[in-house]
Amino acid sequence: MSQSHKPNHFLTLKTLPPATILSLVHRSLAFKHAHPHTPPASNTNMLHGKTLALLFTKKSTRTRISAETAWSSLGGHPMFLGANDIQLGDPAKGGESWRDTATVVGSMVDAVFARLGDHKEIEELAQYSRAPVINALTAKYHPMQALADIMTIYEATLGERVLKEIVSSGEDLPRLEGVKVAWVGDANNIINSLLVSLPRLGIHVSVATPAGYEIDADIKEFVAVEGARAKNVAGDTYGTVSYTTDPSVACNGAHIIVTDTWVSMGQEADKESKLKDFAGYKVTEAMAKLGNAHPDWKFMHCLPRKLEEVDDEVFYNPDRSLVFSEAENRKWTAIAVFEHVMGGK
């Protein structure tokens, strides 16, 4: 496809420099703390007259609501296109290909926010779309969630007062060297997105997944290559990354413990076997204590939460759980991403 101007796609945090990731978090914090419900007045009409196509082949709560409210708050018009709303599907069965869909939709809207299946689908969508494509979730990556998670980690680590001072002064966000995040759960798009971003911000990551649920080899390779590169760059500190099958080992010294659903959409048939494989992975106070987590450790989950993943004592504990502020941050980071993709500040 020939294009005189290449769209500013947002498909994964893997391709973004750490400075850009921190800039997006900084901007998200500015939106959140300047005005509780709307972005700064100077930006409220930035997307006036512009349409966002929300192309979703999977159900959604936080992703859809955050995108629609974020785009609207900048003066634009969000248009939801569910799997049954458009003629998407296998051309051999009467559907329309990703290439044709991208060409048509991309010619009529100003941006495409796509929640799809295989990561190759969004890559093909981006290849043929004239409008910028934003990854709202694929089986490989979930950069919108990871960005909100990073914002939440900054809030939990530095605190609101310090962050407000940084935002108001225009200073850059510091790298969070020494902070440790423990992942206890499945190897999925969330931890993939955290692994390609957190270590590059100086954050240590320990990953516990059951045997047979290892992190993809290409993600591990990226982490290793980036770590080796950082050692050869003066002043570039890189967070350590470790892998284990023991949740208590992963939690050792952790400031943040993160998990996600073990049975993703479309995997319901595997639930019984997965629950057996993930025995002992439920996040509890006892698990954290056994693993010698930091005394003031916090809990994160991208939601929706299933009862087998974390108990109520942790999930609803205001001194532990960050899940609902994490969910709200999806809106603020969406505003920052839209501004970035559409050529704003």
TrEMBL record:
<feature type="domain" description="Aspartate/ornithine carbamoyltransferase carbamoyl-P binding">
    <location>
        <begin position="9"/>
        <end position="155"/>
    </location>
</feature>
<dbReference type="GO" id="GO:0005739">
    <property type="term" value="C:mitochondrion"/>
</dbReference>
<dbReference type="Pfam" id="PF00185">
    <property type="entry name" value="OTCace"/>
</dbReference>
<dbReference type="GO" id="GO:0016597">
    <property type="term" value="F:amino acid binding"/>
</dbReference>
<dbReference type="GO" id="GO:0042450">
    <property type="term" value="P:L-arginine biosynthetic process via ornithine"/>
</dbReference>
<dbReference type="InterPro" id="IPR036901">
    <property type="entry name" value="Asp/Orn_carbamoylTrfase_sf"/>
</dbReference>
<keyword id="KW-0808">Transferase</keyword>
<dbReference type="InterPro" id="IPR006130">
    <property type="entry name" value="Asp/Orn_carbamoylTrfase"/>
</dbReference>
<dbReference type="InterPro" id="IPR006132">
    <property type="entry name" value="Asp/Orn_carbamoyltranf_P-bd"/>
</dbReference>
<dbReference type="GO" id="GO:0019240">
    <property type="term" value="P:citrulline biosynthetic process"/>
</dbReference>
<dbReference type="Pfam" id="PF02729">
    <property type="entry name" value="OTCace_N"/>
</dbReference>
<dbReference type="GO" id="GO:0004585">
    <property type="term" value="F:ornithine carbamoyltransferase activity"/>
</dbReference>
<protein>
    <recommendedName>
        <fullName>ornithine carbamoyltransferase</fullName>
        <ecNumber>2.1.3.3</ecNumber>
    </recommendedName>
</protein>
<dbReference type="InterPro" id="IPR002292">
    <property type="entry name" value="Orn/put_carbamltrans"/>
</dbReference>
<comment type="similarity">
    <text>Belongs to the aspartate/ornithine carbamoyltransferase superfamily. OTCase family.</text>
</comment>
<dbReference type="InterPro" id="IPR006131">
    <property type="entry name" value="Asp_carbamoyltransf_Asp/Orn-bd"/>
</dbReference>
<feature type="domain" description="Aspartate/ornithine carbamoyltransferase Asp/Orn-binding">
    <location>
        <begin position="177"/>
        <end position="340"/>
    </location>
</feature>
